[in-house]
TrEMBL record:
The lineage of its organism: Eukaryota, Viridiplantae, Chlorophyta, core chlorophytes, Trebouxiophyceae. This is Dehydrogenase/reductase SDR family member 4. Coiled coil: none annotated. It comes from [Myrmecia] bisecta. It holds the Pfam family adh_short_C2. Gene3D superfamilies: NAD(P)-binding Rossmann-like Domain. Belongs to the short-chain dehydrogenases/reductases (SDR) family. PROSITE patterns: ADH_SHORT (PS00061).
């Protein structure tokens, strides 16, 4: 249980935040005092997540948003401003992986979707949010441990996550003079619906655990804790960085 209020009087927008890692991030920021704006492609999912957040005493608002639609991104930011009057934190979490296999065998439609949702939408969302961020504002991208060593069968997805590492560095330099920090969290194996194959069988689950030093899979709460640190004043001198939250899985030296 978290008993601090690092985000009192702050407003955070979290994309793809009705389940899994995104929901965990919204709940963590809200538990520390933030007003949270969540979104998903389906209204029913938004309503269910809002009910759960509000049951925890979190002040939250939510709307439907398909991040691949630039107009929806504009509407999301305007919804957040209309709901709470400002934006202090953006967590860009939405991602897709519509196909698996070697990159050169990937259908054009799958490549386009991965690039649009995982990279382009993150850039366009920042374009909408940045004019409203104050000094001390924070942007956090959700990448992946696979970004450091993309391999089959999810190499195209992993490459899109590698791009977020570069985007983090580039925007950190661009926005630093404005006092806005940009960082990235690279989750390890977290058995959400998005990554259900990790625990598809008991054997698969044990094999996944064995790849970590801690012999366990990650949890949304683990990722949320890293995001909360990076978004807070505790990380006031941290920008352009990626934190790997993967239980010791090999990612980089």
């Amino acid at each position: 249980m978290v008993h601090c209020t690092r985000f009192e009087d702050k407003v955070a927008i979290v994309t793809a935040a009705t389940a899994g890692i995104g929901y965990g991030i919204a709940a963590r920021l809200g538990s520390e005092g933030a007003k949270v704006v969540i979104c998903s492609r389906k209204q029913a999912n938004v309503d269910e997540a809002l009910q759960k957040l509000r049951a925890q005493g979190i002040i939250a608002a939510g709307c439907v948003c398909h991040v691949g639609n630039p107009q929806h991104l504009k509407q999301l930011v305007q919804f957040g401003l209309a709901s709470f009057g400002k934006v202090d934190v953006l967590v860009s979490n939405a991602a897709v992986n519509p196909a698996a296999g070697p990159i050169l065998d990937m259908p054009d439609t799958a490549i386009d979707k991965i690039l649009d949702i995982n990279i382009k939408s993150a850039i366009l969302l920042c374009r909408e949010v940045v004019p409203h961020l104050p000094r001390g504002g924070s942007i956090i991208f959700i990448s992946s441990y696979t970004a450091f060593s993309p391999n089959a069968p999810i190499a195209m997805y992993a490459v899109s996550k590698t791009a977020l590492l570069g985007l983090t560095k580039a925007l950190a330099e661009e926005l630093g003079p404005q006092g806005v920090r940009v960082n990235c969290v690279a989750p390890g194996m977290v058995p959400t619906k998005f990554a259900a194959a990790l625990v598809e069988t008991p054997e698969a689950e044990e094999a996944s655990k064995a790849r970590t030093f801690l012999n366990r899979l990650g949890r949304p709460d683990d990722m949320a804790a890293a995001v909360a640190y990076l978004a807070s004043e505790d990380a006031a001198y941290v920008t352009g960085e990626a934190i790997v939250v993967a239980g010791g899985m090999q990612s980089r030296l």
